[in-house]
Amino acid sequence: MISMTLLVALVAFALLFDFLNGMHDAANSIATVVSTRVLKPQYAVLWAASFNFLALFVFGEHVANTVGKGIVDANVIDATVIWAALFGAVSWNIATWLLGIPSSSSHALIGGLLGAGLSKAGLGGIVWSGIFKTVAGIFVAPALGSILALALVLIVAWTSIRLTPLAVDKRYRRLQLVSAALYSLGHGGNDAQKTMGIIAVLLYSQGLLGDTFYVPLWVVLSCYAAIALGTMSGGWRIVHTMGSKITRLTPAQGFCAETGGAITLAIANIGGIPISTTHTITGSIVGVGAARRLSAVRWNVASNIVIAWFVTLPAAGAIGAAVYWGTVLVGRAMG
């Protein structure tokens, strides 16, 4: 049992990660609506943050349960594992945010948790079904987002065939507010729950939840509030990459990308799959760009983003493992 001071500090550190997650992933929710000039940046972040928070009334706690007890065995996790996991995730998030790289906050957290969990308990402490879900999500989420966005582009083209370009633009400028809201709802529902799972398993490891793992209401409220506040703070470097460097978007195309991504996130939230919102929206944007023509996508930018996806999990895992062993060695030296 750790001291109450240390417990509060770790919970605060987890909420800091949640805040940074919102800031880092603000681009996922607002890049398309800003790049198409449907909303000014300051209004876009308020719009997205509001729906990030409202997600707590829409989705259950399936993703929180997966992260809390479905990646590393909950009985293996202790305060040192949580500390190392969060350090790995936060440090990787800050580095990629400063560089403007839209990497996955989700996989940074899971990578840090895996690295620390493996360091403590080896392969026996890993819940492989949860790892399978997460790894599958790396490939399935962007692919599904891309396919859905591409299908929506075709539907929009067919239903708008008798409209003038100006009328199409006017229609989808309004509808993009809806699609941005839906995507932000899915973003909050998936990403806030990952931190909920981390805090809940920390409390469980200290015997504060009794014999049954669950997510207390105060954890739910604080995590949704933290991610919403993070989204409000922006993340403009990544907004620029997501909103204009991959491909140029019209309001109709932005609607298709956001809606395709929102459907993908809703499926993942219901299934308890901790997917990357960054992967999802990037795949959707690529799908929209490719619907025009393959050359409309700046494949060199997209390929750099994909490389960051695959580096994130092992990089955060390596940091988490190093911090775990460093903390253990310092503890032994002092004790």
TrEMBL record:
It is found in: Membrane. It comes from the Bacteria. Pfam families: PHO4 (PF01384). The keyword Lipid metabolism does not apply. GO terms for cellular component: membrane. GO terms for biological process: phosphate ion transmembrane transport. The keyword Transmembrane applies. The chain crosses the membrane at residues 45-64, 76-95, 107-128, 135-161, 213-239, 301-325. Keywords: Membrane, Transmembrane, Transmembrane helix, Transport. Its main location: membrane. It is a multi-pass membrane protein. GO terms for molecular function: phosphate transmembrane transporter activity. This is Anion permease. The lineage of its organism: Bacteria, Pseudomonadati, Pseudomonadota, Alphaproteobacteria, Sphingomonadales.
